[in-house]
Design goal:
Shape: globular
Structural class: mainly alpha
CATH architecture: Orthogonal Bundle
Radius of gyration: 24 Å
Distance between the termini: 16 Å
Strand order of the largest sheet: 1-2
CATH superfamily: MetI-like
Number of domains: 1
Strand content: under 5%
Length: about 325
Amino acid sequence: MAETRVETRAGARPSRLRRAWQSDFTWSFRHSPVAVAAFGVVMILILGAVFAPLIAPHNPFNPATLNLMNGFTPPGQANEFTGELFLLGTDDQGRDVFSTILYGMRISLFVGVSAVLLAMLLGVMLGLMAGYVGGWTESIIMRVADVQLTFPAILVAMLIFGIAKGITPPEYRNEMAIWVLILAIGLSDWVQFARVVRGATLVEKNKEYVQAAKLIGRSPFAIMLRHILPNVLNPVLVIATISLALAIIAEATLSFLGVGAPPTKPSLGTLIRIGQEFMFSGEWWILLFPATTLLALALSINLMGDWLRDALNPRLR
């Protein structure tokens, strides 16, 4: 039936791109206005962050381009001293808020994506081992996961961040702050991946294709990676999408508390922390625009995750 549907009138098979466009997955995406809108917002923000050096009017990380006389310029108004116009205004140091948002998103997205990849790699590997090997290996991994679940993820991230930063030499702390932040968020987020992969592995390891792989002499490591892993990836992709939004929020929270990205390379969380200091003095734009950007980014990624969960669920097809 599917073969008949995708064939052209001439009877030839359509191209791979056309088959992908006509698949159930893309059909579900094209007929979901929420998913299309969320995807559009995410792509606009990601492209803005990636091409920040080309789009941003100023480089907020370069002190040579800053002019303190431009400080506290309202949005859309020319500065009364320099005459320069700033779309979203400037902060207390004269940095263009639009430029700081673009550069701040680069750090937030880099930290979020890297932390999710670390958590996914660690969680998937431990989940596969726990589900396939079983025994004391499973008991140790899942008890560690249970203990970690008893604490809020943000507290675990703060603890790991504090320990890792404490053992880092003082002269390298600012340079290593981003990598320490990635390590802290990644190690606080692996449990969800491990629990889901373990449950799926317990189901898959008793199926016939796994038993056949054992009979032909496949090693346990090869069975886990070549046979079981591809069949447990659907829920992992959903968790990774939702975890990305949570990782970005966790990074913003840590930076807002002053234990995240360094002030020399502010992320969205750092910009929000700076903006809240001037919230009651009339400079509302310093807080509003970074906070709105963070909200739009996290909400759009969450909506994409919700759609992906429904699209990959065979019971809803």
